[in-house]
Amino acid sequence: MEDGGTRKRQRRTHRIVDRLITEDTGVRPTSAGPRVCESTGCHESTRGVKPYCPLHVAQMPYVARIIARQNSREHELSCADNSRTISHNGILAAEFLRWLRSGAVSIPRMARNMSVDINVAVHIANALKRARKIRLTPNTRGVDVAELR
Fold first, then answer.
1. What's this model's pTM, rounded to 2 decimal places?
2. Structurally, how many domains does the chain consist of?
3. SS3 118
4. What is the per-residue DSSP string for 32-100?
């Protein structure tokens, strides 16, 4: 009895995975053997049903989007380090606001959460305060605490 139920679950799971993969890439995976990397001139085999080998995985659209987003974040960080103006609509500001959705956070804690220098966190907080998106209030120890408006 257990074996039949397990097989049914496995078949259903495979169908769901196949459908998701088909919707993402437009190609239904096959079990005809190992796939070859779709990068021009590469003949390495891929892992699973991926279209590219580990050397060319950056050519996948969603990986390229993640890399572009990370590069934009790093660019904003370098601008903040050079004491340029930080946009209240940028990637760092959006990340700051996402952290605040779970409640008020001190600026030093926010810097640790976001893995940025405390001065960068202060710049972001001030930009968001000027845009009237957050409120900064000192706690009992005099440390600024950010909270959504």
1. 0.61
2. 2
3. helix
4. SS--B--STT--PBPSTT-SS-GGGGGGSHHHHHHHHHHHHHHHHHHHHHTTPPPPTTSHHHHHHHHHH
Measured distance CA(50)–CA(60) in Å, rounded = 9
CA distance 20 to 28: 9
Residue 43 domain-assigned (yes or no): yes
- Using CA atoms, how far apart are residues 92 and 110, in angstroms rounded to an integer? 11
- pLDDT, tens only, 68-93: 989 988 888 887 766 667 778 888 99
Looking at the fold, whether 91 and 38 belong to one and the same domain comes out as no
Range of the domain at 36: 2-59
User: Which position has the token pair 């009237």?
Assistant: 132
Report whether 102 contacts 110 (CB < 8 A).
no
Instruction: Give the pLDDT confidence of 23-71 residue by residue, as tens digits.
Output: 555 555 555 667 888 888 888 888 888 888 888 888 888 888 999 989 9
